[in-house]
Specification:
With 223 residues, the chain is an alpha+beta fold. 43% of the residues lie in helices and 25% in strands. This is Aspartate kinase.
Length: 223
Amino acid sequence: MLTMTISQAVKEILKNNTVISQMLSENLLSVSSYSKRIKAKVESLVGKSVNESAIVMALRRAEEESRIRGKREIDLEYEMMMKSSIFDMSIKNTGENSIKIMEILKEVRSDSSAFFNFSLSQEEINITLSEKYKTLVSERIKECDIISKCTNLSGITITFSGNFLETPGVIYLALSRLARDGVNITEIFSTLNELTFIINSADAARAYSALESFLLSDFSQDI
């Protein structure tokens, strides 16, 4: 069986863990504690017993190499758009409500300026829609079927192209940046090429700035 050097083993472990790699690059990881956690895995890859101090040194070298490499170019284009005046509602998932939601969709789909998203779970249907249609929804959905509702929301949508799906850690890094800037997320939606965050309108400007910073810096780091 082919074995690795300690340095190669550590790099292999980091390569498969985007979260840890990001923490290491931002100097947020306790290298000493993490070396204890991966000791058994390193020994398995190396094929012999190793000292924790050697793992610590390998982790620090990996951290330094990441900083020296800096940024890499990614074949990825994106557009970011923000819409305000959005409300969010969760209702009971019944056959009747599913039909009503589809009827509402037919009425608003021709409005290119409207924001609309819905998702289904076993027990609930979630609707996120421009506030100008709040009355329409309220007229169609029985009050007793409403589980929760929230107004004064904004939505930020990032539309990607290129290798979005082949780039690990995108959602984690975006969430990390929003959390770091104190932005609470009401909903998050993703499709093949789009990532949408629903946040309180009071946090919209801060969230937009945080995501823009993520796209211009964090996302282009070699993780």
